[in-house]
Amino acid sequence: MISETVSLMMLISAFISLMMLIGVLAFSKKTYFEDIDKSFEYPLFDTDEDLQNAIELEKKQKQKKKDD
Predict the structure, then answer these.
(1) How far apart are CA 19 and CA 8, in angstroms?
(2) In angstroms, rounded to a whole number, what is the distance separating the alpha carbons of residues 4 and 51?
(3) CA angle, 60 as apex, 55 and 65 as ends, to 5°?
(4) pTM of the full predicted structure?
(5) What whole-number distance in Å separates Cα of residue 21 and Cα of residue 33?
(6) How many CA atoms lie within 13 A of 49 on its CB side?
(7) What is the pLDDT of residues 7-50, one digit of tens each?
(8) I need a labelling partner for 34 at 20 to 30 A (CA). Which of 6, 7, 8, 48 fits?
(9) What is the structure's pLDDT at 45?
(10) Three-state secondary structure along 9-62?
């Protein structure tokens, strides 16, 4: 009875491991930046106003954390 339970547990764990491996391999093919050259160009399109807004937002978030 114990050997049957262990065998069943090993079979289930092998199935789960195989599904996880397939998932990792499938999702690793999809990258966030599909075009590496384009990802390096993103900062070039930021304006001074965008940069100042980001700095102000960061300051507000830090102040909010200090207040909490």
Answers:
(1) 17
(2) 63
(3) 125
(4) 0.43
(5) 22
(6) 0
(7) 999 999 999 999 999 988 887 776 654 666 666 666 666 777 87
(8) 48
(9) 62
(10) HHHHHHHHHHHHHHHHHHHHCCCCCCCHHHHHHHHHHCCHHHHHHHHHHHHHHH
